[in-house]
Design goal:
This protein is an alpha/beta fold. Helices cover 39% and strands 14% of the residues. Bound molecules: 2-acetamido-2-deoxy-beta-D-glucopyranose (5 copies). One of its GO terms (molecular function) is glucan endo-1,3-beta-D-glucosidase activity.
């Protein structure tokens, strides 16, 4: 009760709900010409994500697939210093397929913890051990020639390895999970992995669901079906949406067509109904997989002006648009910042007075 007044004030300023769920994009380790991304490449990407015009909330979280800088054995990925510089929150990734040991991933992570200290660890919101490993060895993964994967027994072992390696470090309490397709989560043979994780990351792409009636007009049903299937497999464990999106160009897939209009429709009908309410890492800010003919990037050349208007319908429940102006500092934005600082100072005073 003694917090009633200040909390009401906080809520009325719209501050209380900030930072409740993570909003961001995925980021691969290499560029669209398969070169290792350097710190400057990551920085540009993370900076663009936060400055997207008419963005429905601040996209300041990044999901990575590996801790290792591309073309090195176990050097920490340069996304880490870029995240520190841009104050981006990190969902870390451990690459688990095609290997019998994740030792190099864990070495890269512990080197980063030592090297960057709390500047780094304070940004980490979770760690995903693996990405679509069990999908790749499933019937549909094999049919789609998805590549080398990993079975549930190995995934459970790797998750335990990660927990053991984080013990006694500043990251010992972060959520440890795994990312896979909804089909892999719904497959009962993979239940041991669900028992082992703190969260389930799910990758949902109605575009690829060619046996589900995947015309864009049915995207909401297909998305809900896939999300619901993950949730029922998850039981009480949290489900994070680690990849979702619709390609702007590329081949047809079943009834799905890759067009700018459909990508915008998908953003509006799916993205705008989840942003700010569940953890979402959208696929994708900028394409970096030259082997995929479908192109999902919402920006071209990392421009802060996206390919379509990102603002969400007013009644969608998504955060209001930000970055309405070009990002150069105007007198107006400085005035807003100082108003906010004064508001925060008053609230700090209120809290201490009431406590
Ligand atoms: C952490 O960030 C602060 C402020 O930028 C800097 O002074 C300090 O050297 C950084 N620490 C490490 C270990 O990088
Ligand atoms: C279910 O999962 C197991 C283990 O990951 C896999 O071997 C099997 O092929 C999967 N089933 C289907 C129908 O894909
Ligand atoms: C829409 O999607 C749902 C769920 O996948 C499916 O059952 C239904 O048949 C689809 N509708 C059409 C018209 O294809
Ligand atoms: C998914 O679950 C939600 C909430 O329980 C429900 O409203 C919706 O109809 C379900 N959708 C499908 C396609 O199963
Ligand atoms: C984006 O859409 C919003 C809402 O309809 C509109 O107010 C805004 O002017 C549009 N922005 C751009 C850059 O077209």
């Amino acid at each position: 009760m003694r917090f009633a007044v200040p909390l009401a004030v906080v809520a009325s300023l719209g501050l209380a709900l900030a930072d409740q769920s993570f909003l961001g994009f995925n980021s691969g380790a290499t560029t669209d010409s398969k070169k290792p991304k350097k710190q400057a490449d990551f920085e540009k990407e993370f900076d663009t994500a936060q400055k997207l015009r008419y963005s429905p909330g601040l996209f300041n979280s990044v999901r990575l697939y590996t801790n290792i800088q591309a073309e090195t054995t176990d050097t920490p990925i340069e996304a880490f210093p870029a995240a520190i510089k841009t104050n981006s929150k990190l969902l870390l990734g451990i690459w688990c397929s095609g290997t019998t040991s994740i030792k190099n991933e864990l070495t890269a992570l512990s080197t980063a913890i030592t090297k960057y200290g709390s500047n780094f660890t304070n940004l980490v919101v979770g760690i995903s051990v693996g990405s679509e490993d069990m999908y790749r060895i499933s019937d549909s993964g094999i049919k789609n020639k998805a590549g080398v994967g990993q079975g549930p027994t190995t995934m459970v072992k790797f998750i335990k390895d990660v927990r053991a390696s984080l013990k006694g470090t500043p990251l010992s309490n972060i959520p440890v999970g795994h990312v896979d397709t909804w089909t892999a989560w719904a497959n009962k043979s993979n239940k041991a992995v669900i028992d082992e994780v703190d969260f389930l990351g799910t990758n949902l792409f109605p575009y690829y669901e060619d046996d589900k009636g995947n015309d864009i007009s049915n995207a909401t049903s297909v998305f809900e079906y896939a999300l619901n299937s993950t949730k029922s497999a998850a039981g009480k464990k949290p489900v994070w949406i680690t990849e979702t999106g619709w390609p702007l160009t590329g081949p047809d897939f079943g009834q799905a067509k890759a067009t700018l209009d459909n990508a915008r429709t998908y953003w509006n009908t799916i993205g705008c109904t989840i942003f700010g309410r569940v953890n979402v890492w959208w696929y994708e800010l900028h394409d970096s997989n030259p082997d995929n003919a479908a192109k999902f990037g919402v920006t071209k050349d990392l421009s802060t002006t996206p390919q379509f208007n990102l603002s969400c319908p007013a009644n969608s429940g998504a955060p209001a648009s930000i970055n309405l102006q070009d990002t150069k500092k105007s007198a107006g934005s400085i005035a807003t910042v100082s108003f906010m600082s004064i508001a925060v100072m008053c609230l700090t005073w209120l809290f201490s007075a009431v406590a």
